[in-house]
């Protein structure tokens, strides 16, 4: 059962946009990485077929306690894989429905006029040779080291540092063992696609975090000042939480929530490895957190990255994500509006980031617009990162203040970010970036780091 549970957890993480397959598999703590990776990859490849089988056999309606992603894994192995060699009570459950599932599979083959299981897969489910390859982004964990020391370390390992990239086009040209400093984010290094650093000492020691560039934007744009109290509302697996801690310089308090015990355990391991202190993990649905609890009376920042369709993660798996149904989008958007409105009800809140790894307007601009209307003039949409090329869709006046990311335009995963600030009396013009983020941006977009800051940074822990 451990294999199927681990595979289902990875699929859930992909759906939420927590990371790519490799990151989630390696962070799963499952002992047989290749076996887990193969099962997840094949389940993803057959995902559209599995969804049709589950719907046709009404399995999820019959077995209401069976999680959808676990159902996919079980049905894949039952019909297309090794035939459920393990699985405990869930295996028994799946086998009870075997006849119906096999009948549905036969019906599907007749309907599509094919005889082999492989023939049920559409050509689009294979990765196109011309598909855009997203680079390997590496966030330097400034709680343990600094950019200069990490660059030096990679040089000693035979990598060739090309300096700070001037544009996204330069990132596309990366190959071999070349790497650059990202043109937008000051603590982000960029390597060619498919660069595998999971066994690298810097990764295993927590000195670097393998995190997509778009996923780094929420914490960067929230930019909490050191000493602040921050909520990470839907926190696992913890990359954004560790990024917040680095921005806070471990000064302050982070309250992180997630409903899944195993994900929280994995997150705790990740945060400890990254050297994060001053955080409290809670196995709790964020919607049940009481904003009036004195414990949260000093919370001035909230990072909200709720469950979404994951439609922006199109290049992270061996197949393209099937488009979610209108009903699923409506259900997701309803939840997202509810959780965003709840986040804005914390009395001391000053600044909030709402982000998703979705491409759909229903989960992004429409959610922000609806919640802003609900909260009247209490909060405003901030004009974030004006130099960022991709803006929000023109769904409502001011939506251009939001930003979007995509493989084609920004060479990242698909993402959406909006920043909301509490309105103060006399506010007329939306601010752009908080002071901390402006300073980071100047350092990241300007010249190479100066010598004096370099000396200060080198006092931190080094990797030899």
TrEMBL record:
Location of the SAM-dependent MTase RsmB/NOP-type domain: 126-423
Protein origin, superkingdom: Eukaryota
GO CC term (a single one): nucleolus
Keywords: Acetylation, Coiled coil, Methyltransferase, Nucleus, Phosphoprotein, RNA-binding, rRNA processing, S-adenosyl-L-methionine, Transferase
Ranges of Basic residues composition bias in the record: 454-464
Single annotated GO MF: rRNA (cytosine-C5-)-methyltransferase activity
Coiled coil: 91-118
Active site residues according to the UniProt entry: 357
Subcellular location: Nucleus, Nucleolus
Sequence segments annotated as region (Disordered): 434-464
Coarse class of the protein's main subcellular location: nucleus
Listed GO biological process terms: rRNA base methylation
Binding locations of S-adenosyl-L-methionine: 234-240, 258, 285, 305
A Pfam family it matches: Methyltr_RsmB-F
PANTHER family in the cross-refs: 28S RRNA (CYTOSINE-C(5))-METHYLTRANSFERASE (PTHR22807:SF4), NOP2 YEAST -RELATED NOL1/NOP2/FMU SUN DOMAIN-CONTAINING (PTHR22807)
Family: Belongs to the class I-like SAM-binding methyltransferase superfamily. RsmB/NOP family.
Entry protein name: 28S rRNA (cytosine-C(5))-methyltransferase
Organism annotation: Galbula dea
Gene: Nsun5
């Amino acid at each position: 059962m451990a294999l199927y549970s681990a595979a289902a957890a990875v699929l859930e993480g992909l759906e939420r946009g927590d990371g790519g397959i490799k990151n989630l598999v390696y962070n799963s703590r499952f002992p047989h990485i290749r076996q887990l990776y193969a099962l997840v990859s094949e389940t993803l490849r057959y995902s559209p077929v599995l969804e049709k089988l589950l719907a046709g056999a009404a399995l999820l309606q019959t077995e209401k306690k069976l999680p959808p992603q676990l159902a996919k894994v079980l049905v894949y192995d039952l019909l297309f894989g090794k035939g459920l060699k393990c699985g405990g009570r869930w295996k028994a459950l799946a086998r009870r429905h075997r006849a119906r599932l096999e009948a549905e599979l036969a019906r599907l083959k007749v309907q599509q006029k094919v005889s082999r299981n492989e023939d049920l897969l559409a050509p689009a489910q294979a990765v196109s040779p011309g598909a855009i390859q997203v680079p390997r982004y590496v966030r330097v964990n400034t709680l343990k080291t600094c950019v200069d020391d990490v660059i030096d370390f990679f040089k000693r390992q035979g990598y060739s540092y090309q300096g700070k990239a001037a544009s996204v086009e330069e990132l596309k040209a990366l190959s071999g063992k070349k790497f650059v400093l990202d043109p937008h984010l000051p603590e982000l290094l960029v390597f060619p696609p498919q660069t595998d650093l999971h066994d690298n000492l810097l990764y295993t020691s927590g000195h670097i975090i393998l995190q997509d560039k778009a996923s780094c934007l929420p914490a960067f744009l929230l930019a909490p000042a050191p000493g602040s109290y921050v909520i990470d509302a839907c926190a696992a697996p913890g990359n954004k939480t560790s990024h917040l801690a680095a921005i806070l310089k471990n000064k302050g308090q982070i309250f992180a929530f997630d409903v899944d015990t195993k994900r929280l355990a994995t997150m705790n391991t990740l945060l400890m490895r990254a050297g994060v202190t001053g955080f409290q993990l809670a196995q709790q649905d964020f919607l049940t957190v009481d904003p009036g609890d004195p414990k949260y009376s000093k919370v001035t920042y909230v990072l909200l990255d709720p469950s979404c369709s994951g439609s922006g993660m199109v290049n992270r798996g061996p197949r393209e994500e099937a488009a979610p149904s209108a009903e699923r989008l409506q259900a997701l958007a309803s939840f997202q509006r509810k959780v965003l409105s709840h986040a804005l009800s914390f009395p001391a809140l000053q600044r909030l980031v709402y982000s998703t790894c979705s491409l759909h307007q229903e989960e992004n601009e429409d959610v922000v617009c609806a919640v802003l209307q609900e909260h009247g003039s209490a909060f405003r949409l901030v004009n974030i990162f004006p130099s960022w090329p991709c803006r929000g869709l023109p769904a409502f006046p001011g939506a251009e203040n939001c930003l979007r990311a995509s493989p084609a335009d920004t060479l990242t995963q698909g993402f959406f970010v909006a920043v909301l600030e509490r309105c103060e009396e006399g506010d007329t013009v939306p601010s752009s970036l908080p002071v901390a983020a402006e300073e980071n941006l100047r350092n990241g977009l300007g010249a190479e780091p100066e010598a004096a800051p370099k000396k200060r940074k080198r006092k931190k822990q080094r990797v030899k």
